[in-house]
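User: Could you go from structure to sequence for me? I need the amino acid at each position, not a summary. Structure tokens:
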């Protein structure tokens, strides 16, 4: 029984290492969300950190339109980031992700 507990602890440590590595990797995955066929493009990491927002000058004159495009572009990017993140979590879970660990 001690060997089983030791084995489980080793697996847990390995999974934690994998999670840390995956989080680091997700910081380097850049995702674009856009609105208005590219009038506004928001770039975020898969860890959902905003790294860039590009705005076409044609939408700068109308504050309401600009705000709508920004919201749409950011929500689009966040949705894509969630999909990427969920895919990575699924890969770890399939390899024996211990219950209760937070990704």
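Assistant: Here is the amino acid at each position, in order:
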């Amino acid at each position: 029984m001690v060997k089983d507990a030791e084995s489980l602890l080793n697996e847990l440590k390995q999974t934690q290492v994998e999670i840390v590595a995956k989080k680091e990797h997700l910081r380097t995955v850049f995702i674009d969300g856009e609105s208005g066929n590219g009038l506004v493009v928001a770039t975020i990491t898969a860890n959902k950190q905003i790294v860039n927002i590009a705005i076409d000058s044609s939408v700068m004159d109308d504050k309401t339109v600009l705000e709508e495009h920004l919201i749409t572009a950011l929500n689009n990017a966040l949705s894509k980031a969630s999909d990427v993140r969920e895919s990575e979590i699924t890969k770890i879970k399939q390899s024996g992700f211990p219950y209760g660990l937070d990704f």
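One structural detail worth keeping in mind: The longest strand covers residues 30-35.
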